[in-house]
């Protein structure tokens, strides 16, 4: 978790320098992070938790979306590591293998998609970002759904909680992006 916090801080420093240097994206509003979070509907509390220690008080909305997006990508990497561990022989029951394989594939794709969204936002190119957010959310939800179809005992796995948390953060990142991308 310290690695993730350090990575987000590094992103924030680079974003602040970029956008403070007059490199803001055209037609993207600036607002407080609390105002941006108010637009995330029922995920407002998670949005606030995500941005309160990492975001500047006021910034272009792309900064807030980019922070949440990069944090989600970093969490995907952490979750993928846990999936890889569970896929090693003897670490998980055979009946869970198909669901774990699905998670590995879907998370790998979602990670690439959010990396692309980050690159696009950093370059103020939003042409594919909306759909890539949606595709990443669908991928993480597919993993979550696969785990839900397993017997109830698997829902107590730490992996299930991580995937659920990752899904919620993906939605927050998408909703922050939707402020300037549209839904």
TrEMBL record:
Residues 26-176 form the Pectinesterase inhibitor domain. One of its GO terms (molecular function) is enzyme inhibitor activity. Keywords: Signal. It comes from the Eukaryota. SMART domains: PMEI. Residues 1-24 form the signal peptide. The keyword Cytoplasm does not apply. NCBIfam families: PME_inhib. PANTHER family: OS08G0142100 PROTEIN, OS08G0142100 PROTEIN-RELATED. This is Pectinesterase inhibitor domain-containing protein. It comes from Sorghum bicolor.
């Amino acid at each position: 978790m310290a690695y993730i916090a350090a990575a987000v801080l590094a992103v924030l420093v680079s974003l602040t320098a970029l956008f403070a240097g007059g490199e803001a994206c055209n037609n993207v509003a600036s607002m407080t992070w609390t105002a941006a979070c108010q637009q995330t509907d029922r995920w407002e509390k998670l949005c606030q938790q995500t941005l309160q220690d990492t975001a500047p008080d006021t910034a272009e909305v792309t900064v807030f979306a980019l922070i949440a997006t990069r944090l989600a990508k970093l969490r995907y990497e952490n979750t993928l590591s846990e999936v890889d561990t569970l896929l090693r022989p003897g670490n998980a029951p055979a009946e869970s293998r198909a669901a774990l394989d699905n998670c590995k594939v879907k998370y790998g794709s979602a990670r690439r998609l959010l990396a692309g969204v980050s690159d696009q936002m950093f370059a103020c190119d939003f042409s594919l970002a909306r759909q890539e957010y949606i595709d990443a959310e669908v991928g993480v939800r597919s993993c979550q759904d696969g785990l839900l179809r397993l017997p109830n005992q698997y829902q107590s796995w730490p992996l299930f909680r991580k995937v659920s948390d990752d899904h919620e953060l993906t939605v927050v990142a998408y909703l922050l992006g939707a402020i300037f991308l549209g839904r």
